[in-house]
Amino acid sequence: MKFIHIDKENSIAFYQQIMSSIEKAIKEKKLLRNDKLPSVNKICIEHKISRDTVLLAYEKLKKKGVVKSIRAKGYYVRTEDFNFDERYFLLFDELNIFKEDLLNSFLKGLAGKVQVDTFFHHFDPAMFSKLISDNMGNYSKYIILAANVEGVESSIARLPKNDVYIIDQMRNSLKIYSGIYQNFVENIYTAMESVLDLLQKYNRYILIFPGHKEPYDMVTGFEKFCREHGKNYSVIPDLKNFKLRKGQVFLIPNDRQLVETIEKCNHHHLVIGEDIGIISYNETPLKKVVQNGITTLSTDFSEMGKKLAQMVLKNERKLIENKCTLNLRKSL
């Protein structure tokens, strides 16, 4: 059944005519999901056009999510539903309330103009690599939160550089791409320096850093502050075998450790904000009321999602640091 029609007298580009023919055939149910499309060579011979023209049509249809390619087999219909001009690949580490805020704001900013497919690598390097490999060429934009997964550079490098955006956590090796991110080193240093007068009553500075999911730049920023201001400090993975004493102040990235710290303070009758100081990473509504208020250091994930949507829709190529705010409360 012949369904690709090219009118060489028409001013519409040949590749666009190929795309329109295939999309029309799908809409008219002449092509169904997983049906094989004519080979590149067959179309070239039948219509006396170049391979590059046919490949361009197929690649654009791939980015729209209409077709898929299978190595050594050819091109196939991917879906019969294609109401979007573009499809974005969004790769998160995991879903939590902060990523949910980012995602919802991003989708709102896109205003239904784009289909977004969301994936999760769960800090697994093999899963990260597989998700990139399986989806190469199928999307017009690739938005990636690599987190602290090692060795991602080679996988990301396989994607078109101008279609890649790195979000939330950045590293020097990924700054060749556009994106929006937190500057953990600068944010922690600046935030702690801004409350130096309140921190003076503490004689021991402690970062609880499990290191499984948290960005190592947190350690760098914390140690930079402590060294430059002559503070006695420690970086510990958890509170196991650690004795709380009056005069300690904690920077806590993980909410599980925050709860444990509060429980231990209450158990040992240590008053938070007087005997023990706490700065928790990432704002939540609950932290405004727990223990009369927990001081937080947090970026605005909703703002990050909003700015990201603006960047990708305008195809802007730049790096943006997302603002971070210290919300001072009684825990300090």
Automatic annotation (TrEMBL):
InterPro entries, alphabetized: LacI/GalR-like_sensor, Peripla_BP_I, Tscrpt_reg_HTH_GntR, WH-like_DNA-bd_sf, WH_DNA-bd_sf
Coiled-coil ranges (or none): none
Pfam families: GntR, Peripla_BP_3
Keyword Transcription: yes
GO MF assignments: DNA binding; DNA-binding transcription factor activity
Domain of life: Bacteria
Keywords: DNA-binding, Transcription, Transcription regulation
SUPFAM superfamilies membership: Periplasmic binding protein-like I, Winged helix' DNA-binding domain
Domain HTH gntR-type stretches: 12-80
Record flagged with keyword Transcription regulation: yes
Protein name: Transcriptional regulator
